[in-house]
Amino acid sequence: LQGKTAFEDRMATGWVGALLMVIVTLVVALAAVPLLVGTGVADTLTSGLVRASQDRTPTVIAVGVAAAIVVVGLLTRAGLPTSLTLGMVGGIIGAGVGLGMPVIAGGVVQVVLIGIAAPIVGGVLAQLLTSVSAGAMARGGSRGLAALGVLATVAQAIAYAANDGQKMIAVVAVTSVGVVPVTAIGIALLFAVGAAAGMRAAAGTLSGAIVRVGPAEEVTAQLGGAAAVITSAAMGVPVSMTQSITGGLVGTGMLRGVRRVRWRVAGQLAAAWVITLPSAAATGAAGAWIVRGMT
Predict the structure, then answer these.
(1) d(CA 111, CA 144)
(2) What kind and span of H or E run contains 104?
(3) DSSP letters of 206-233?
(4) pLDDT value at position 4?
(5) What is the pLDDT of residues 83-110, one digit of tens each?
(6) What CA–CA distance (Å, rounded) separates 57 from 171?
(7) End-to-end alpha-carbon separation of the chain, Å?
(8) Which residue in 111, 60, 117, 127 sits closest to 244, CA to CA?
(9) φ, ψ dihedrals at 258, nearest 5°
(10) Shortest CA distance to 268 belongs to which of 201, 200, 205?
(11) Does residue 284 carry a pLDDT above 90?
């Protein structure tokens, strides 16, 4: 979704056309991908981090999500935009601990390590894609960029469906409703509308604050980030789409010189990411302790 810039050369139809294209792509991907390839990321969030009993799992997820929202909201308000994925992982772990549930150490370590690797992989892939596609983009001009932009948007929609959209699937899965085609489509619609609403702001923050790159580099950064997220999702590990695309932007920016990257801003983002998981874990544990005392 941060890839709205992929369509800047296709704006002859205006923002309405581009926005509709993104929403339709997101809805189709969010509704279809989990039904076709499974819900590995949602399974990890519901049962791969904490060994909770069946009757306690909904409480763990509810408290974990609430903790993530509180921590991410406070950090964002303090000028440190961060990842809801990290917040949910930390919140769920903390909620499990607060309710006296054992933590699955192997699952937590895997999520943390792959989460660290995702932006690095996104950056490396973006650099490779930028180098490989440079000649083709020069020959194809605006048409080549537009075609690559469509590919980037489709790739990001798939990545969102396989990763970010499954956060909501994890929440719905532990309710009495469960995940059925109707709820999957409803999740897709809500996710797409909410995501599209922040399209311009997200794109401006990521591409302008950290490093200034051209449209071609932005598209390859989006592709590299999406590829990293899809690979992680295939392993059933939730990672941050924002982190992965940020890694892609830094990677492409470094091709034109290390000094082009605004490392102070990148460092602030990294600091927020580092703070998020333990803060959400502590908040989740405190919330779970309160809930435990009330029941």
Answers:
(1) 36
(2) none
(3) HHHHT----HHHHHHHHHHHHHHHHHHH
(4) 41
(5) 888 999 999 999 999 999 999 999 999 9
(6) 10
(7) 41
(8) 117
(9) -60, -30
(10) 205
(11) yes
Question: Is there a contact between 58 and 175 (Cβ–Cβ < 8 Å)?
Answer: yes
> How many angstroms separate the CA atoms of 161 and 36, rounded?
11
Q: Which residues contact 131 (CB under 8 A, 6 or more apart)?
A: 255
Mean pLDDT across 5-22: 47
Which residue do the tokens 């302008």 mark? 208
Q: 271 near 82, Cβ under 8 Å?
A: no
Q: Nearest-CA neighbor of 232 among 122, 128, 157?
A: 122
Q: 3-state DSSP call for residue 176?
A: coil
The Cα–Cα gap between 27 and 193 comes to: 9
- Please count the CA atoms within 13 angstroms of the CA of 257 that sit on its side-chain side: 4
Spatial separation of the C-alpha atoms in residues 129 and 134, rounded to whole Å:
8
The answer to whether 21 and 151 are in contact (CB under 8 A) is no
| Closest of 169, 156, 165, 161 to residue 206, by C-alpha | 156
Supply the DSSP symbol for 80: -
Tokens encoding 264: 């102070």
Residue 86, classed as helix, strand or coil, is: helix
- From CA 44, how far away is CA 85, in angstroms rounded? 12
What's the token pair of residue 91? 């919140």
**158-203: pLDDT as tens digits:** 888 788 777 777 776 665 545 555 655 665 566 556 555 555 555 5
- 151, two tokens: 């590919």
Contact 271, 80 (CB under 8 A): yes
